[in-house]
Amino acid sequence: MGKIISKFVCHECGYETPKWLGKCPGCSAWNSLLEESISNKPLRRTAERVAAIPLNQLSAEDSPRFSSGLSEFDRVLGGGIVPGSLILLGGDPGIGKSTLLLQVAGLIAAAGKRILYLSGEESLQQIRLRASRLGINNDTIFLLNEQDIDLLHEYINDLDPDLIIIDSIQTVYSSKLSSIPGSVSQLRESTAAVMQIAKKMDKAVFLVGHVTKDGSLAGPKVLEHIVDVVVYFEGEKNFSFRLLRAAKNRFGATDEIALLEMSGQGLVEVPDPSYVFLSPGRDISSGTAIVASMEGSRPLLIEIQALVSSLGAGYPRRMVSGIDQNRLSLIIAVLEKRRGYTLSACDVYLKVSGGVFLKDPSVDLGIAAAVLSSYLEKPLAMDTVFIGEISLSGQIRPVSFLDLRLREIDRMGYKRVIVPTSPGRLAKSSHNMEILEVKSLDHFIDIVLEG
């Protein structure tokens, strides 16, 4: 029998050290090292040796997929669920992760497939009550209240399910380790065991993961490296809308988003999210601009609101919701340097409607327009959309997928769009709206705000 030794592992990044430290050298987190006991008994190989296969003998066809029953969820997954894939769904407590997966299980079971739902958090009666509320009553959904992940292989051999749901990966454990469920070692061992089952038996597996207070998935980063797909389920508990965002996808595009609405009967798809991110019948007021942002392969029209007020005592405040705060500071610095606006003597507040977080650089022009509109107390035209990335030199840089954005703007009924100058890339005759090209921040301000 091997000797039992202790080590300290950071539950944020997985850094290991033989002694306790107040600050993790790997991620600089405080009080994140937890003690774990391990055995240094040498591992013996029990698996059979597998043969290497030449590349040209493997099929070049795309992996077959089956639908989750929710077209918006299929979009985020890259077109459907791939057998043998390992999908990690993360989100805040109470956001609706279990409801979403139980609803997906009901839809897939209705198509004639078998589902194994392993729950380590809730009792079977709690799951049954939720299923009744969602109107799910299928005899091909098998519920299991078991935390020992080493027994999963036996249940799969008995039931032969097409889809396996584990809710959640932080509550299951492997009996090979002595550490508690949810520890770094257990997370790595359990996820590796599930991955081996998914790949060898060609079974699709959903893992539910908890998130930390800063919004990242709990546990070591190796958890995200092991799985095939990482999907974040985002939203505010006080609002009914929920966002699904793919952060990693080996079978499709990343940064795809889907919009769902939480109702009494479960989650309902929102096929046209642009209407959600725009204020219906809004009045003409300063500080409001419409931008066209690419979220994955889908262009969305989103409203940005800015408020510039005179500076009180102390330092100027920069408060944002929906974009990176450093990005707002950069745009303000360009406006001060290139046009001489004294925004350093003002408090600036910025909000993106709908709760979505924007990373697309093409919304820079809309942010600048909203800030200047509030600063100058000059409302922007309600039928105008702004597209463009602002460089530090004050130039308006071209953006990608311009034609897709223009088609979405035209479909939504807007009459004018401000875009960067892009010779040879703009087909004005194909769109029923006025397209105004600007080459610099000076040009934009002169013709739009001060013209």
From TrEMBL:
One Pfam family matching this protein: AAA_25
Residue segments, region Lon-protease-like: 347-451
CDD domains: RadA_SMS_N
GO cellular component, as recorded: cytosol
A GO molecular-function descriptor: damaged DNA binding
SMART domains, alphabetized: AAA
Cross-referenced PROSITE patterns: RECA_2 (PS50162)
Span of the annotated motif RadA KNRFG motif: 248-252
Keyword Metal-binding among UniProt keywords: yes
InterPro entries: AAA+_ATPase (IPR003593), DNA_repair_RadA (IPR004504), P-loop_NTPase (IPR027417), RecA_ATP-bd (IPR020588), Ribosomal_Su5_D2-typ_SF (IPR020568), Ribsml_uS5_D2-typ_fold_subgr (IPR014721), Rubredoxin_2 (IPR041166)
Family annotation (PANTHER family): DNA REPAIR PROTEIN RADA (PTHR32472), DNA REPAIR PROTEIN RADA-LIKE PROTEIN (PTHR32472:SF10)
Matching NCBIfam families: sms (TIGR00416)
Family: Belongs to the RecA family. RadA subfamily.
HAMAP family to which the protein is assigned, alphabetical: RadA_bact
The name this protein goes by in its record: DNA repair protein RadA
The species this protein was found in: Syntrophomonas wolfei subsp. wolfei (strain DSM 2245B / Goettingen)
